[in-house]
Design goal:
The complex is a heterodimer. Helix content of chain A is 33%, strand content 29%. By secondary structure, chain A is α/β, with parallel strands linked by helices. Chain A has a 6-stranded mixed beta sheet with strand order 7-8-9-4-10-11, with helices on both faces. The longest helix of chain A has 18 residues. Chain B contains 7 helices and 2 strands. Chain B is mainly α. Chain B starts with a helix and ends with a strand. In chain B, helix 1 packs parallel to helix 4 and helix 2 runs antiparallel to helix 4. Chain B is flat and about 65 Å long. Chains A and B meet through helix 2 and helix 3 of A and helix 1 and helix 3 of B.
């Protein structure tokens, strides 16, 4: 099995206002897949579809080799899921939630749970409703990891948490992945957070998957170029021209944002009578913003 | 698995269960208070039967209330979390619903047994006039069936989404509108009465709630 998650031409709509269209995802086994997108782009809906919480109107979904939602219980037995909003019963104590959760998973590992308890410094006697946001986040991660899952699906697991808690969660996640070789599907709109841990990235916008590629390709392929003397119309560039900012003139030149950049492509500028002054790296966040800007730009 | 479901349900509905045990035990005892005379007259017997009958509505109401409260508490916490937790557990939805239903039914046993013991105690200590009989077992069984029926109905309703509740309310509203239109057209058919009758008379599902809930009867 090469992919732990595969979707083919999935369509799902919520009334007439929002639609997931033609969603074809491929999450490789053993990867940490960052699922990026602005708020409201369809990340949580997609996760709902992957977990069998929602039923797609068209298309097929396969998770861990099983069809979803048909075999959702078998998939969920091997998947650690952290939803976007805290979903645990607020009147139970932490200890009660642990016992409740553990009863549903044959793979539950009490030793790992106890170890994470110590690491996260949680109080077993506290009620869920009385936990802080950080404590709730830690507990949800603990529950997902102590299941010993083959796949972790995390929906904005660190959203709204302070840096100390965020770091603790990410370290626990990476520790687990390194021990078990599990795949992780993690959604976030905090781009810089995923940049450090993910090896694959998928970008959603307005219900569509606009890009899916290895993180390295995504980061290295998008560049900001400073160009002077370029003609108004450029034909057949060897890269994808995402944007061209002609606002700066005289001396400073234009700023181009391109995708698929490789060093030998510098020769292209000689051919069109232009001059390449500078090639600047974009971090993931800038690349993400440029990608969305291109995607949203009206087509000519 | 069932154990933890039962535990959560007990935690959420223990106040209801404990109060129901008290009410269930007290109801039969209170209903036979007039049966105290050592040599009852004909008037006393009549008065006793009337009193017992006047209490009968409380058994039906109690069974309905118990079913309603246990059913709503069974789902309240899942509703609050939009069912995400329940749906993300690795078991089929019907299995989860069955576990929740069974847990509520098990908890219901406590008030039923309390009512049965109360009924046995009440009839054992009361002076039952000659010609009258005590029916503690039958009353407890009737109560158990009624409570279970109410629980099942409310459990099914409360397990649904807001949309489902909307559909049910729309159907009821449509019936009332249809009745109004029939009335306005000068037709004498009473569809609401007919439907209500179908539901509460045999073999209607709510027949158990009607009739005589008599602890002591002829």
């Amino acid at each position: 099995m090469s992919n732990v998650i595969e979707t083919r031409s999935v369509r799902y709509h919520v009334g007439k206002s929002f639609e997931i269209r033609d969603l074809s995802l491929n999450v490789p086994a053993g990867s940490i897949y960052g699922f990026l997108g602005p708020n409201g782009s369809g990340k949580t809906t997609t996760i709902g579809l992957l977990m069998g919480l929602l039923r797609a109107h068209e298309g097929t979904i396969t998770v861990l080799g099983q069809p979803v939602p048909g075999a959702a219980p078998r998939v969920l037995a091997r998947t650690g899921f952290v939803p976007e909003r805290p979903h645990l019963y607020p009147t139970l104590t932490v200890e009660e939630v642990l016992r409740y959760h553990a009863a549903f998973y044959t793979t539950w590992d009490w030793r790992r749970a106890d170890e994470l308890f110590g690491r996260f410094e949680l109080d077993r006697s506290l009620r869920i409703g009385g936990l802080s946001k950080g404590e709730t986040g830690k507990l949800m991660m603990l529950l997902a990891l102590a299941q010993n899952p083959d796949l972790l699906v995390l929906d904005e697991p660190t959203d709204g948490l302070d840096p100390v808690v965020r770091r603790a969660l990410v370290i626990a996640l990476l520790d687990y992945v390194s021990q078990r070789d599990a795949a992780v599907f993690i959604s976030s709109h905090l781009v810089h957070e995923l940049e450090r841990i993910c090896d694959w990235v998928g970008v959603m916008d307005n219900g569509r998957l606009v890009a899916e590629m290895p993180m390295q390709t995504f980061k290295s392929g998008i560049k900001r170029l400073r160009v002077t003397g370029a003609p108004a119309l450029v034909e057949d560039p060897p890269f994808v021209l995402l944007s061209r900012d002609t606002g700066e003139t005289l001396g400073a030149g234009e700023v181009w944002v391109v995708r698929g950049w490789q060093t030998p492509m510098q020769q292209y500028f000689d051919g069109i009578g232009a001059s390449l002054r500078e090639v600047m790296d974009l971090d993931l966040e800038e690349g993400f913003v440029e990608l969305l800007r291109t995607f949203r730009a009206p087509q000519a | 698995m069932f154990q933890v479901i039962l535990y959560t349900q007990w935690k959420w509905s223990r106040v209801v269960v404990v109060l129901s045990v008290v009410v269930g035990f007290a109801l039969p005892i209170l209903s036979v208070q007039p049966a105290g005379a050592s040599e009852p007259t004909r008037y006393d017997v009549q008065y006793l039967l009337q009193t017992i009958q006047s209490w009968s509505v409380w058994y039906a109401a109690f069974a309905t209330g118990l079913g309603l409260l246990l059913a709503t508490t069974a789902w309240a916490h899942d509703h609050r979390g939009r069912h995400v937790y329940a749906l993300s557990l690795p078991l089929p939805r019907w299995h989860y619903a069955l576990l929740r239903f069974t847990a509520g039914a098990v908890l219901m046993a406590a008030p039923i047994v309390a009512l049965w013991i109360g009924a046995l105690l009440a009839t054992a200590t009361a002076q039952i006039p000659p010609g009258l009989q005590a029916y503690p077992n039958a009353l407890a069984l009737r109560f158990a069936l009624a409570a279970l029926t109410a629980y099942a109905v409310f459990f099914a309703i409360s397990s649904g989404t807001t949309r489902t509740a909307g559909y049910v309310l729309s159907i009821i509203a449509a019936l009332f509108v249809a009745q109004l239109l029939l009335g306005a057209a000068g037709l004498s058919e009473n569809i609401i009465h007919v439907l209500f009758d179908r539901v509460i008379t045999w073999p209607g599902p709510l027949e158990i709630f009607t009739g005589r809930w008599m602890l002591i009867d002829v």
